[in-house]
TrEMBL record:
Name by which UniProt lists this protein: Dihydrolipoyl dehydrogenase
Binding, NAD(+): 188-195, 211, 279
Keyword GTP-binding attached: no
Catalytic center residues: 452 (proton acceptor)
Organism: Neptunomonas concharum
Pyridine nucleotide-disulphide oxidoreductase dimerisation domain ranges (all copies): 354-463
Length: 479
């Protein structure tokens, strides 16, 4: 007789491991299946985010930002620093240590909360049974009252640029480059492309980004996109729009010839490394038996309702394998919601208030709708902006690029979107998310006391600017 659990979670990424811990905390007998193993065959938890995504990329971004500051901005503070060098191998080693500490921490959390780890490839069978195939090929079947599918996503590969070890890389390979390339090519000007391009541009690489779309950061508010494009150009990122890769060729095993076409015709680019960052797709291949009852759409996403229920009672799906943005925090909150629902609690998630962040320098962050979306919907709005150049704390930090932009409904004053470009936008955007979650008006933020001097005062001033009441900039007429 197979072992039975109240909940089996397939996938131990930021959606799956959080769901498993929450379910166990709520008194449910819980198991979590994970196929990822290290070079010693031990299960590795945390999924893409902790191992080859969010965390390691931020470690590299932080290291290179500190290097760039010391090499280029120290003098403005009165600090004399000459011949600043970056030990790239040490930088990568530090990144690996951080990843190991965090993934090991999840293993400890599983033990502390009583979550059973099932190492192997998980597959949903009929009647809520889960087959787990270990690395050695042996398989076991477990029964579950409830199953949570949290299989995540994988990088999209493109035929014109097949991955080639050491030369043409996906996001995982890009995180393990151990020597600064003289020339770096990036296909895709999305989150991963911009972040990885920034890492190596700071260390001296000549970075060229090829973006097939004819607009830059089309999903962002266009004020943010325009400001970011200007700043990235200033930093040396050569972003070519309407540039579609048509082929690649390895030269002498050392270089990559990238063929692409743009509005002017066919062109070529020679680089030492090429990073392919054109997006991600759901990792649902092999996840479902034919008679599992769970349905996929034409792109491989699992069909779910607003509560992440599939068409099979007791089977849920969360994270990158379902509709919505492919964000770790979205997956985690879905995991908590589903665990609460399974335990019999009322739970819901506000999909209108999910922050988006790009961790370049300055950072880009937004929550809610863009000015372009609201105008297209015919919503009458009022907009307030405040530049960090007018912030005393930002001046003291030598980080005056960017602004905070707040959009409110002209009739109700309710905040509909908050958009930022700035040094710590990733931290400040939570203020916008909290305000929107509580259905705040611009006036609510106007009446809130913000500490001085802080960078957060820019949020306060942007809220004041919505009604032309900003104190530390000259107010303009409403648009």
């Amino acid at each position: 007789m197979s072992q039975k659990f109240d909940v089996i979670v397939i996938g131990a990424g930021p959606g799956g491991y959080v769901a498993a811990i929450r379910a166990a905390q709520l008194g449910l007998k819980t198991a979590c299946v994970e196929k990822w193993v290290d070079d010693k065959g031990a299960a590795v938890l945390g999924g893409t985010c902790l191992n080859v995504g969010c965390i390691p990329s931020k470690a590299l971004l932080e290291s290179t930002h500190k290097f760039h500051e010391m090499a280029h901005d120290a003098k403005v503070h009165g600090i004399e620093a000459s011949d600043v060098q970056m030990d790239v191998k040490q930088m990568v080693a530090r990144k690996n240590t951080i990843v190991k500490n965090l993934t090991g921490g999840i293993t400890g959390l599983f033990k502390a909360n009583g979550v059973t780890l099932l190492a192997g490839m998980g597959k949903l069978l009929a009647n809520k049974q889960v087959e787990v195939t270990a690395a050695d090929g042996t398989a076991a079947v477990y029964d579950a009252e409830n199953v949570i599918l949290a299989s995540g996503s994988v990088p999209v590969e493109i035929p014109p640029a097949p991955l080639t070890e050491g030369l043409i890389l996906d996001n995982e390979g890009a995180l393990n480059i151990d020597e600064t390339p003289k020339r770096l090519g990036v296909i895709g000007a999305g989150v991963i492309g911009l972040e990885m391009g920034s890492v190596w541009a700071r260390l001296g690489s000549e970075v060229t980004v090829l973006e097939a779309m004819d607009s830059f950061l089309a999903l962002a508010d266009q004020d943010v996109a325009k400001e970011a494009a200007k700043l990235f150009k200033k930093q040396g990122l050569d972003i070519k729009l309407s540039a579609r890769c048509t082929g690649t060729e390895i030269i002498d095993g050392k270089e990559v010839k990238v063929k692409y076409t743009d509005s002017e015709g066919d062109k070529e680019l020679i680089v030492d490394k090429l990073i392919v960052a054109v997006g991600r797709r759901p990792q649902t291949q092999g996840l479902l038996a034919g008679d599992s009852g769970v349905k996929l759409d034409e792109r491989g996403f699992i069909f779910v309702d607003e509560s992440c229920r599939t068409g099979v009672p007791g089977v849920y799906a969360i994270g990158d394998s379902v509709r919505g943005p492919m964000l770790a925090h979205k997956a985690s909150e879905e995991g908590i919601m589903v665990a609460d629902i399974i335990a019999g609690h009322k739970a819901a998630m506000n999909y209108d208030v999910i922050p988006n962040i790009i961790y370049t320098f300055p950072e880009l962050a937004w929550v809610g709708k863009t000015e372009q979306e609201l105008k297209a919907e015919g919503v009458k709005i009022k907009v307030g902006k405040f530049p960090f150049a007018a912030s005393g704390r930002a001046m003291a930090s030598n980080a005056t690029d960017g602004f905070v932009k707040i959009i409110a409904d002209e009739t109700t004053d309710r905040i509909l979107g908050v958009h930022m470009v700035g040094a710590i936008a990733s931290e400040l955007i939570a203020q916008g998310a909290i305000a929107m979650e509580f259905c705040s008006s611009a006036e609510d933020l106007q009446l809130t006391v913000f500490a001085h001097p802080t960078v957060s005062e820019a949020v306060h001033e942007a809220a004041l600017a919505v009604d032309n009441h900003a104190i530390h900039i000259a107010n303009r007429k409403k648009r």
